[in-house]
Amino acid sequence: MTYRIGVDVGGSFTDFAVLNEDTGRLSTLKVFSRPDAPGEEILLALDTLKARDGMDAAEIAYFTHGTTVGVNTVIQRNGHDIALFTTRNFEDVLEIARLKIPQIHNLYSVRPEPLIRRDRVFGIVERTLATGEIAEAPRENDVARAVEEALAAGCKGIVISFLHSYRNPANERAVKAMIERLAPRLPVVSSADTWPIIREYERTITAVISGYVQPRVAHYLDRFETVLRGRGVACPLLITKTNGGVMGIDQARAECVQMILSGTASGVIGAGYLAKASGFDRIMSLDIGGTSADVAVIVDGTAQYGVGELIGDFQIHVPSVSVSSVGQGGGSVAWVDPLGFLQVGPESAGSTPGPACYGRGGTKPTITDAMAASNLIGHMPLGYGAVTVDHAASRAALEPLAAQLSTSVEELSGSVIDISVSGMYAEVSALVSRFAIDPREFHLFAFGGAGAMLACFLARELDMKGVVVPPTPGVVSALGGLIADLKNDFIRTTYCEVNEAGIAGLLPVFSELETAARDWLKAQGHAQEGEIRLSADMRYLGQSFEIETPLETVWLTAGDTAAVAGAFHREHERLYGHSDETAAVQMVSLRLVISGATPKFVLQPAPEATGPAEPRFHVEGWFKGRTWVTGVYRREELAAGHEFQGPAIIAQDDTTTVVPPGFEVCVDRLGNLVITKSEL
Hints:
The protein is α+β, with helices and mostly antiparallel strands and about 675 residues long. The protein is built from 17 helices and 35 strands.
């Protein structure tokens, strides 16, 4: 008997999706995460699966793993102190950024503090010209001085980002070699090796984020691999990627930026697969864990992709599933700022100690505590029996804030929920504008440990079609890892006009990218050739920014300039409503994506209802500033065809679904909860 396992390690819980390849049975599990001892949660889960299902570690044939350790490190700003080595006289690159304020309509909006302080940015005398020609090579004595000062400042890693290194990485690689000789144990990240794109700030911030999370991610992955190998798991270990694919663990250690949205992207892939199989063609996924709330747009089962995704306060410029993250997770802490205003997040209680109501030593009030104090969760055990909610502890944590704001615990709890939903609303509004969609045409697909808890509140504010909660919402990210394909991105700066000479010059570039891609897929142990998708970053000559335009490989091999230019004109028309077919077109970069398909499982229909849905009991829940008599249902007792009105609480092992007044619930043929607005 063999098993395929997908794992997602979040800030609070670690989720398992286990597929028995012989029987086709899918089972799930959720245990507490152990950021204090990474890997211990894996051991606990393997022991539990052996006792519960008889699964032996040697029977595991496929193991994928997604984690939010990278994104949580950036959001919470708890990465290691690192230094930046940049071209002399360009030390202000992180402060200058793009000279834009985050919120253009807010005159008081300020840019965030950089991840690297200005006194830890060191200029190196070197210069590469825009043509790629080396005008001045770096000197080792200059680098040695900078390394000595960085170590004296307590830096635990170094990022190198030099001017024009996307054209020629020689100077960056030379300095990296010098640092490795001078300080062999110091992690070094090169921007040209991370993602060699034009634009100094974008390339630099991407490398900085990679370097900022690298020590924490590498430590986590080392511990993770040691634990699994020690337990007898012999199959290759795969890590889910920011682009929605998977890669080997060695690549993940070396290219941390490729897994910065690892767990987040897994959730989007899982949500897209489940939504398409269930017949929902337009959804916005809402993944709420302990630290963050992540939103993505999915059409016909396919997530939107792009670059420049927001990670906390910063954009990351690698190909990724388009996800917006905001620090509004179930463990996000409520607090009062110096002006006396209530705030929520981005600090998170995580899993250790966790929300106060978990009874693990936490004392800070969180969103989860607000839900518990409102009597909306905790009426049955959570986390597969790992959590019994302590309502008194949640109230005790909230009482000091309530006293400070001269209000009741219930009113304060409602305000905490409202503020968290408001933060999500602002993030989703930006996503709606970016992709030019109407949320009234979309369902909100809720998952994660706290997604179903808050989804109806957000869907009401966005006036969406409704909310969909899958049968096991708490482990959708782990399930996404099971079905994610092997996938890797390759890019080469070209800077050529789209004409006969320019296209002819692309053929050797394409050949090199294709060879590198196929070698990569073969190195992952994939027997088939895989699927190659080609695109290019293109613009009208004289424009400042590019559009990623899908291309056909035959257009390049045939030298079909009209087809290449035509694809760009159509994409420009689609995005901006106009194009100019008489204007010259420039290709800035050529992109290639290779993917190798992995096996998928088939969803099974839910049992049909034989009678009406009946709540186990009723409680008084706090909604809209007053208490409401609220039915508490057990999820496994609901069957296809069941319908009932809110307010309601639906408890299950991996999450709690909260249905406010004014909503009704219907269970569809696959066991999804479909929640829509109704009249009170």
